UniProtKB/TrEMBL annotation:
Occurrences of domain Aminoacyl-transfer RNA synthetases class-II family profile (ranges): 274-575
SUPFAM superfamilies: Class II aaRS and biotin synthetases, Nucleic acid-binding proteins
Disordered: annotated segments: 1-20
Name of this chain's protein: asparagine--tRNA ligase
Database matches in CDD domains: AsnRS_cyto_like_N, AsxRS_core
């Protein structure tokens, strides 16, 4: 009302509808008062009635109501106008949404009436996996004179795209992807209209070539004539939709908490599928080379790679550890089985959060009898290259590797062989300091960062050999020509660094016992290991390859954490 007066107290007033704007119930802001009563009314304001007196106001002035200043009123009017505009827009939007909801409800009510039934006069559908391309099993139709095979497939909805009359989905079953098209009453049915990603579905239909210019997996699409979604097969939608839980922008830690969902993504699943192929290839190549597979225990009472990284636990009434390496057990198999290997878990209680350390990793270890150090290096190079050949021979796996690591090239053979002492010289020449910031010296442990820089610059696989006795494990054979160093090897790969550690083993019992003494290890727990030297010793050696590190290199993954199913490392033991 034009002649009405409203009061604004900036201290104790309140911008709520319980206030009237009367002197005893003032508003807090002029903007709110104008918005509530229009710009024509009279507005009296005061700064403060409580608390400290604002600078420049005396005691009396602060209790005095004054007409709102012109500039303040102008600002308040603009504010009120903007608020009114916003309210109109919100109302319009709400009306639109209500209408849309009503329309959608109408469509869904209609959709519920549609009964999808299988046409039993159609040919029997052949159950196939989504990657089945064998022409003897599936023929592609052309939508005209050539009929395609009628198939039955199962999978989860990887992606969906709805058009007016057609619904396209990309189906995923772990073997491959298939484009499926729903048309006619299927596209209008309730289950298809409300379809959410990750829902499980059974689809029957005819396989056809994609139209020219269109793209789809295996250049084909399934024209559905029938589908089935059981109620419990439906995936959560809305807020809980999988796309709201994991996406490209989700933080790495959250992705790891939700690894069970992350694994459904194309990137994570490719790595894990390549991993399966690589592990299989190792088995195949070892068989070709006549190594036998064994399965040593994980619960042990001996250390292999130093006490600092042992996970200890109570084993009934005794102390025991999770194994760091199966090497010592593999050595015990040589006399009865010949050359042996294993693919088992190793455990390291490393309190490190680097991108190449796990607490639990898959260790591919082999042990060879009656060999020289050069034989060991040749064997290792052969195994690694042959594994890559076998892996890349599968066109699907090859494509996955190229997708993940477009610049991948087979390593050049022979691998560069470099002695530890040469590496020290190289690091000094290239001004790459040790961990103390000093030039490297013979005897220094080459730290992860320096090792990786050297490997990245050389940019090819390196066999780094002959490490000093002091920085290597107790069991390593000394080099007869230079007793300061061991017949040891680390295989270094660009981008990752060390992926293999191996050596010839000390085969002289006296020497071994001296090594135990040097390392302060009680040899009595190792009676079964020293017995190997007592009953027919032999020149032998072996190595351990970290599968996750090999994959990080092959699939160009930043961290080994993304190269295993559910990574375990310092601070993470879930899911
Ligand atoms: O160099 P390491 O410690 O050697 C051994 O355990 C030997 N006993 C193996 C043998 O000769 N049979 O480990 C071998 C390889 C490393 O090169 C690395 O690839 C991997 O195992 N590895 C790890 N991978 C992930 N996380 C860790 N914490 C790892 N520690 C070692």
């Amino acid at each position: 009302m034009a002649d009405q007066t409203y009061y604004i107290d900036e201290d104790v007033g309140e911008d709520t509808t319980t206030q009237t704007g009367a002197e005893d119930l003032p508003y807090k802001t002029l903007g709110f008062a104008v918005l509530s009563h229009g710009e024509g009314a009279k507005f009296l304001t005061r700064k403060s009635v409580t608390g400290e007196v604002p600078e420049g106001l005396d005691e009396k002035a602060r209790l005095e109501w004054k007409p709102a200043a012109k500039a303040a009123l102008k600002k308040a009017i603009n504010y009120a106008k903007a608020q009114q505009k916003k309210a109109v827009k919100e109302k319009e939007l709400l009306a639109l949404r209500t209408k849309e909801e009503a329309d959608r409800k109408k469509v869904l009510d209609e959709a519920k009436k549609i009964v999808v039934e299988e046409d039993m006069s159609l040919p029997k559908a052949e159950k196939i996996k989504l990657d089945e391309t064998d022409p003897a099993k599936v023929k592609l139709g052309n939508g005209a004179d050539v009929k395609g095979t009628r198939v039955r497939v199962f999978g989860r909805v990887h992606r969906e795209r709805k058009q007016k009359e057609l619904v396209f989905i990309t189906l995923r079953d772990g073997y491959g992807f298939m484009q499926v098209i729903f048309s006619g009453i299927l596209a209008k049915s309730y289950d298809i209209l409300t379809l959410t990603r990750e829902t499980s579905i059974e689809v029957l239909g005819e396989l056809r070539e994609v139209p020219p210019g269109a793209k789809a997996p295996n250049n084909r699409e399934l024209h559905a004539d029938y589908f089935r979604i059981h109620d419990i097969w439906k995936a959560a939608g809305g807020e809980e939709a999988i796309t709201n839980r994991v996406s490209k922008d989700t933080e790495h830690a959250t992705l790891l908490d939700l690894r069970h969902l992350t694994l459904r993504g194309e990137h994570a699943s490719k790595v894990i599928i390549v991993r399966d192929a690589v592990e299989y290839a190792f088995n195949q190549v070892y068989r070709e080379l006549r190594l036998r597979k064994v399965s040593p225990p994980a619960l042990v009472q001996t250390q292999v790679e130093g006490g600092a990284t042992l996970f200890k636990f109570h084993y009934y009434n005794e102390e025991a550890f999770l194994t760091q390496s199966s090497q010592l057990y593999l050595e015990t198999c040589l006399p009865s089985m010949g050359d042996v290997y294993c693919i088992e878990k190793s455990f390291r209680a490393e309190k490190s959060l680097t991108r190449r350390h796990l607490a639990e990793y898959t260790h591919i270890e082999a042990e060879l009898d009656f060999i020289t150090f050069d034989d060991l290096l040749d064997h290792l190079e052969l195994v690694m290259c042959r594994v890559l050949e076998v892996t890349m021979a599968d066109p699907v796996i090859k494509q996955y590797i190229i997708d993940l690591n477009p610049e991948f090239q087979m390593p050049e053979r022979p691998f560069k062989r470099m002695k530890y002492s040469e590496a020290i010289d190289w690091l000094v020449e290239h001004n790459i300091p040790n961990e103390d910031g000093e030039p490297h010296n013979f005897g220094d442990d080459i730290a992860e960062a320096a090792e990786r820089r050297m490997t990245d610059i050389i940019n090819r696989p390196i066999f780094l050999t002959h490490f000093p006795v002091e920085i290597k494990a107790f069991y390593m054979q000394k080099d007869k020509e230079d007793l300061r160093v061991t017949e040891s090897v680390d295989c270094l790969m660009p981008g990752v660094g060390e992926i293999v550690g191996g050596s010839m083993r000390m085969d002289n019992n006296e020497e071994l016992l001296a090594a135990f003494a040097r390392e302060n290890i009680d040899p009595s727990a190792y009676y079964w290991y020293t017995d190997q030297r007592k009953y027919g010793s032999s020149p032998h050696g072996g190595y351990g390859l970290g599968l996750e590190r090999f994959l990080a290199w092959l699939c160009k993954q930043h961290t080994v954490r993304d190269c295993c199913l559910y990574p375990r490392y310092f601070g993470r033991c879930k899911p």
